[in-house]
Amino acid sequence: MFKGFNQANLARKLPGAVVVIATEDLIDFETTIEDGINTGQIHSILDPTLADHMRRESLKFIDELKRTGNRT
Q1: Are 17 and 45 in contact (CB under 8 A)?
Q2: Does the pLDDT of residue 32 top 70, yes or no?
Q3: Under 8 Å CB-to-CB from 9, ≥6 apart: which residues?
Q4: What is the pTM of this model?
Q5: Could you give the angle at the alpha carbon of 40 between the alpha carbons of 36 and 43, nearest 5°?
Q6: 54 Cβ contact partners less than 8 Å away, ≥ 6 residues apart
Q7: End-to-end CA distance of the chain, in Å?
Q8: How far is CA 60 from each of CA 1, 41, 42, 44, 66, rounded to the nearest angstrom?
Q9: N or C, fewer C-beta in 10 Å, the chain?
Q10: Any idea of the CA torsion for 45, 46, 48, 53, to the nearest 10 degrees?
């Protein structure tokens, strides 16, 4: 899922609103990964705190993006 998401974004320049939508999709993806690791449904070498950190960084990015008024 993420591989296709990333390739699509690299192939074109995205307007601000689309970047927000794409970042929200990424946050949903990271939340699913974090939940899966914490519940044992996903077996990973990632420490659960690293998965949480990755999700929090995306949340910080979207907060900054929204505060700038979606100017990209």
Answers
A1: no
A2: yes
A3: 22
A4: 0.67
A5: 85
A6: 30, 34
A7: 24
A8: 22, 27, 25, 24, 10
A9: N
A10: 180
